[in-house]
Amino acid sequence: MVSATSLTSGFGIWDPVLWVLAIIIGLVIAWILWSSGVSAFKKGTEQARPYLSGNAEPPKGEVHIRAGNLYWGFTEGIKGYYQRIVPLHTGIMTDYLLWMFWVAGILLIIVMVV
Amino acid sequence: MIETLPAILIGAVLVAVFSIIIGLLLMGFDRIVAARMQARIGPPLTQPFIDIRKLLAKENVVPENAIPWLFNLAPVIALASAITILFYLPIAGFAPVLSGGGDLILVMYLLTLPALALVAGGFASGSPYATVGAQREMVTMIAYEFPLAIVVVAIAWRLAAEGISLPFSLATIGANPVWGLVGPLGAIGLLILLVVLLIVTPAELSRVPFDTPEAETELAGGILVEYSGKNLALFSLTQGVKTVAMASLVVALFFPYRLAAIAGISGFLGAVIDLLFYILLITLVTFISVSVIRVAMARFRINQVVSVYWIYLAIAGLGGLLLVMVDQIMGVV
Description:
The complex is a heterodimer of chains A (114) and B (333).
Chain A: E1 7-8, E2 13-14, H1 16-35, H2 60-63, H3 72-77, H4 79-85, H5 93-113
Antiparallel strand pairs in A: 1-2
Chain B: H1 5-37, H2 47-57, H3 68-86, H4 104-124, H5 128-161, H6 170-175, H7 184-204, H8 216-219, H9 229-254, H10 259-263, H11 267-296, H12 302-332
């Protein structure tokens, strides 16, 4: 059964209207549970300091994760791939054009054969 | 749609309550069996309920470095989005509440929402531990999406190869159990894909060995370090609901069977039998993919998490997909 407001691609279906309804129901249930708890705490006390295993909090700039390090685990996990792929990005336009022609040629062969 | 609106509302509330209760029971079950495997007695089955009740009665500390509105909003969005996933999944032989409103591709995207809310909450905490935890959660999320997508595509491809329309629809998958469509080679491929999905599950749930975002012994709770009281209670509930969602996804993809239908029992008794059979299946999935794995293994480092999913499980998943494809082609020839 596909609803009237569904978006279909022939393979996939998504009804954004129903999803909005669903998330509203979810939010209401979650909010009811959330608001049944206690909201109070002792503002401005030691309680509200960030937990750092008893160490003094370093300046914020020193603990900030920079964008370049955000995906560290990812780049480290498949560094074998990155070690090969990064040097290929030479910044020279003719290199990129050569790559484009190579890939287009290979794709053309695949399309023609298949 | 107007005519079905009350039915959707009632169904959604029932599914939400059911998933929260079963989710907490599954968490209690996991704690008991993990304790027994470690020669401990463990807590009672209802311990997660007691924990939630206690957390709701505790102070809800908002750290002074935090962004308060985002810090408080993240757990609400996490639980809401986790509940929403179950509206699209068949439960206990019943069609999804929003059947026809979305398919497997949507479920895959919805599975990322609770994790994204957790990441937003971690970054909004203003704590170095939480920031590192949030960064790791993002990397973990990127890591397990690839093998998960391979499993989903493999099953949909096999259904599409049979000429079945809407192959990503969970109703289609439920009506055409994939084991019945394949030969021996395809069955081996499906078994590999099932194992891949069972290993994706602990990462979706941030459980050992893929709990690097929390890493209690290393990051003191990481992404959740600053959360307490009702906010932490909601994240715990999210964990329970996501456990039900992931187990239900495994059941919906690989075991969409109804015991009552097989035994020829219908009516109320049939519905009860289907419900009990479904609970048994999701408990088994939780036991294998959460309890056994977390007891048997130690935590991976974040770069190892990426290697496991993008190299080893991706290769295994592609191998499974290839076997399913070869099986289909050989069947046609």
